Amino acid sequence: MITMKNVRVYAAAGVVLALDRLSKVLWGFEQRTLIPGVLELHGMQNGGVAFGALNGSGLWLSLGGLALCIALLIWLHRTDCGKLCQYGAGLMMGGGLSNLIDRLLYGAVIDFIDPVFLHWFVFNIADAAVVCGAVMAGIGLILSGEEHK
C-alpha cells in the first residue's frame, strides 16, 4: 500500500541516492580546489566506516549496511513517527544505499569532499545525508514522543 509515509521515505532516499551518484560522475575523480584553503575535491577510497574505522571489512560492512537498510524499512513500517523522522530515515537509507553501491563497484566508499580547513575528514554526499538524517530522525522521534504524552 502506498502511503504518504512511504512516499516521504522513498522520495528522500531517491534524491540522496541520485545526488550522490551524480556528484561522483560530475566530479570526474579529478582533484579540484573550489575555495582555496577552505574546500577541495579529491578522491580517496574509504574501506571502513566513518573516519576510516574498521578499514578492510568491506564484505561485512556491505552486508551490515544492507541489513541496516532492511531493518530501517521494517521499523518504519511498524512505527508511526512524524514527517521529520520519515525524511530523516529516507536520508539515511539513500546514503546507506549509495555507499553500498560504492562498496560493490569499487570495494570501498569513494569520498571526495574535503573541507581542508578542518584537516581531519573527507566525505561524500551520502555520508552527509546519513549524518543529517540520523539527527533529523532523532529529533523527529523526540518530537513525536512529546505529541503522544
Give an overview of the whole structure.
The chain has helices spanning 4-27, 58-78, 83-106, 125-147, and strands spanning 32-35, 39-46, 109-114. A hairpin with a 3-residue loop joins strand 1 and strand 2 (39-46). The chain has a three-stranded antiparallel beta sheet with strand order 1-2-3. It is globular. It has 149 residues and is an alpha+beta fold. Helices cover 62% and strands 12% of the residues.
User: How much of the polypeptide forms β-strand, as a percent range?
Assistant: 5-15%
Query: What is the average of the pLDDT values?
Result: 84
Order of helices and strands: HEEHHEH
Q: What is the number of E strands?
A: 3
The total number of structural domains is 1
| Main sheet specs | 3 strands, antiparallel
Structural class: alpha+beta
Ends distance: 29 Å
Helix segment tally: 4
Largest beta sheet: what is the strand line-up? 1-2-3
Low-confidence stretches: none
Helix content: 55-70%
Radius of gyration: 16 Å
Query: What is the 3D shape?
Result: globular
